[in-house]
Amino acid sequence: MKIKNILVALDLSELDITLIKYCSMLAKNYGTENVYFIHNVKKYEISNLFSEQLENINIEEIIEEELENSIGKYFNTDCNYELLVSDDAYTESLISYVANKYHTNLIIVGNKNTYKGSGSVSGKLLRMAKCNVLLIPKEANLNPENLMVATDFSSASLKAFHTASDMSSKQKSTLKALNVFKIPQLFFPYIKIDKAREKVEKHVDQQFEKLLQKTKNQQIETLKASAGEDSIPEKIRAIAEKNKTDILFVADKGHNNFTSLLVGSVTEELFTQDLHVPLWVVKRYITS
């Protein structure tokens, strides 16, 4: 797999350095040809109180110079790059538009969901993007060695599995495949929980066997777990963090796939929470 074009969203926060370094690592490994760094100024957020002081100052020029310095310092890959600074009311729409214009294969954004309200742009972007999206937290490992893919054995998650397997081969990283299942409560009065779990686990093992037959990567560890009282995203997050996962791969949607325009609830919940693991969302349908 080749990632020809990457788009990186910068916001002048401390996360920018991590995003630039991470993009540099990926561009080297995937033979990337073009990287587009983008920043949205959002002038409308500047209070009228400061309009006089800023009247003769070219904000875009100052921001562009600062970002160019950071990119020049931390982006050390031999490929083309371009910095785009814009002033748009809707950041997610701007990123989606630029990604489509330049036929981007991957959008990289920072995970700032620890701050109140900061995850909203990421959630909207996930729904609008037509290419893969990678959400990076500040503590991301720049040399990913432990990869994990969450699967529900749907055709969409199979694509995520292949993406993770490809990276595992490139990075010579370990890869774990995880399935988290939840037995509906309404079955409990009629079926003993132990028997229900045993039946589900047997089914999961059979599905894993079929899945592994579809890949050349034989060094894959399989994990299965019941969500119990947790939601499936909560359980996936807990297992990923417990296993010190460096990148968690998920499909944009699972079995409940009514339309390609909808993002799966499990993926969106993972995407908009305080996840301390990079989250790579693999889109099933990609429009060039």
TrEMBL record:
InterPro entries: Rossmann-like_a/b/a_fold, UspA. SUPFAM superfamilies: Adenine nucleotide alpha hydrolases-like (SSF52402). Coiled coil: none annotated. Residues 3-137, 146-283 form the UspA domain. It comes from the Bacteria. Belongs to the universal stress protein A family. This is Nucleotide-binding universal stress UspA family protein. It comes from Tenacibaculum lutimaris. The lineage of its organism: Bacteria, Pseudomonadati, Bacteroidota, Flavobacteriia, Flavobacteriales.
